[in-house]
Amino acid sequence: MLVVNNKILNLAEVILTSPGSIHEVSTILIDGRLQRVYKNLWSSLRQFWLSAVSRYAEDTYVVYEHQRWTFQEIHHRALKLASLFSSVYDIGKGDYSSTTLNRSTWLK
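RESULT FIELD:
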């Protein structure tokens, strides 16, 4: 049976989201509703990814069976895939697309 100590959880939240912390929260108006949001988020998922690639370039990011790829290797593959979408399928900024992966065969 899982026992949850709410006092400890509340204290952890206060510590993690306090002013000056990386997970600091603030309250802003979004679509007419007040929302608690993280203050120090990246401006986009792209900025988050580029930051991670820069910081952890040589660290393992994906493990598939007995193979390993670093952040930099996956980033390079993502750039190649984006180039393919652009040049072959004329998919560009603002277009919507969907992809599926067949058991990660694209990693091989």
